[in-house]
Amino acid sequence: MATEVYFVRHGETMFNQLNKVQGWCDSPLTVKGINDLKITAQALSQVHFDDMYSSDLKRAIDTVHLMKAANQVSEIGKIKKLPEFREVFFGSFEGDDIEETWKQIALAAGIGPETDVTKIINQVGIYEFREATKKADPRHLAENKKELDERMVRAISVLHELAAGDKRILLVSHGDFIKTLAIKYWNQSDGLHDIIFPNNGSVTRGILHENGDFEIVDYNVDAENM
Predict the structure, then answer these.
(1) What's the pLDDT at 216?
(2) What is the Cα–Cα distance from 212 to 163, expressed in whole angstroms?
(3) For a tag on the chain, would you pick the N or C end, based on fewer CB atoms within 10 A?
(4) Cα–chain center distance at 211
(5) List of residues 6+ apart from 180 with CB closer than 8 A
(6) Percent of the chain with pLDDT over 70
(7) How far from the centroid of its chain's Cα atoms is residue 48's Cα?
(8) Helix or strand (DSSP H, E) at 105
(9) Do 133 and 107 touch, CB atoms closer than 8 A?
(10) CA 146 – CA 131 distance, rounded (Å)
(11) What is the pLDDT of residue 226?
(12) Distance between the two ends of the chain, CA-based, in angstroms?
């Protein structure tokens, strides 16, 4: 049986609000973030899920508990946290100003001091962008193409094993991770260029097939429109 996967991006956080890089570092949900998530949770309250999961970062855990508390038609037990679905890791750039970070990455990619991340990715491609991120990181800790791609494949494999026999599940993850999944697994992406960044609280729907194949079928959709 194929499993329908509802990926929800966590709500707005303090670092989102302050325009700071937020990968494996964490910051709390804002009041706006919580209020926006309540809209998503209400829109999904009548959708039956066999299970719910989240990344192991607190902003995702807080989000999934809001989804669980609002759902009226599902019997969800303890939420399992999956580190494989963490946000992309930005190494030494964690907590830094986003535009300054993009400028450093653009310089490492050899295209000059650009602060528009979409322009950087579309000029060099998503994979060279990841390589440039690791190169620009003074400690070279940021995830590169190979590391992130291997983690995405592992994440789907872990989910395939956990969700065997489930018809529909919900999983709270992160904006850049969900976007990179869609670049890889969505047929409306060419696998190289940038796509729109998912909104906080948005839903991206995937299908996990019985043989382990995975595809994104809806991307960055307001929950009310699912």
Answers:
(1) 98
(2) 11
(3) N
(4) 23
(5) 88, 126, 148, 152
(6) 100
(7) 22
(8) helix 98-108
(9) no
(10) 9
(11) 78
(12) 21
Question: HEC states along 19-35?
Answer: CECCCCCCCCECHHHHH
* Six-digit token string for 40: 């998503």
Give the Cα separation of 143 and 152 in Å (integer).
Answer: 12
In this structure, what DSSP letter does residue 184 have? H
Give the span between the Cα atoms of 46 and 212, in whole angstroms: 28
pLDDT in tens, 172-192: 999 999 999 999 999 999 999
Distance of CA 128 to the CA centre of its chain: 20
Question: Looking at residues 86-90, what average pLDDT do you find?
Answer: 98
Residue 133's region, left for phi above 0, alpha for psi from -120 to 50, else beta, is: alpha
C-alpha distances in Å from residue 87, one per residue of 94, 109, 146, 178, 209: 11, 22, 15, 8, 24
The predicted model scores a pTM of 0.97
For 35-90, give the DSSP string.
HHHHHHHHHTTTS--SEEEE-SSHHHHHHHHHHHHH-SS----SPEE-GGGPPPP-
Residue the block writes with tokens 């060099």: 124
CB-based burial of residue 171 (10 Å sphere; 0-12 exposed, 13-18 middle, 19+ buried)? buried
